[in-house]
Amino acid sequence: MNAKSTRSATARGVTIVELLVTIAVIAILTSIAYPAYQGQTRKSARAAAQGYMMDIAQREQQMFLDVRSYTGSIAALNLTAPDKVSNRYTVAVVVAAGPPSTFTVTATPVNSQIEDSCGVLSVNSAGTRLPADCW
Asked: From CA 83, how far away is CA 62, in angstroms rounded?
């Protein structure tokens, strides 16, 4: 027996069928896992937005104690939105004048966050968080 026939008898390559089966299995796993991954990233971004909104509400309450009024400017509160929030939400503060003065912080989803089932998030000066089932 020569070296060439011995080598070909022991060395075996991957057949096209095996390669196609492997690609099919990977495609099926990806089609199941990717939507779940997207859902988790949306939940994570929502949690980050909620935390940021609560920071804004806390600073608004502190400002009210200090100067007896709320502000409609997030910059006046010395807060900056984290990238995770600013890439997926537009956050705004609306102040309603007197008596009593109130504020509402809203986070409107943008980009891929629009697909989140919760939609627009809000918290007001009374501590009411909407939609209630998403907090």
From this structure: 25
State the DSSP string of 47-77.
Answer: HHHHHHHHHHHHHHHHHHHHHSS--S-SGGG
- Is 85 in a helix, a strand, or coil? helix
Mean pLDDT in the chain? 91
d(CA 88, CA 108): 8
* Residue spans per domain, the chain: 10-134
pLDDT at 10: 64
Q: What angle do CA 85, 88, 93 make, to 5 degrees?
A: 60
Q: Are 56 and 105 in contact (CB under 8 A)?
A: yes
pTM as predicted:
0.79
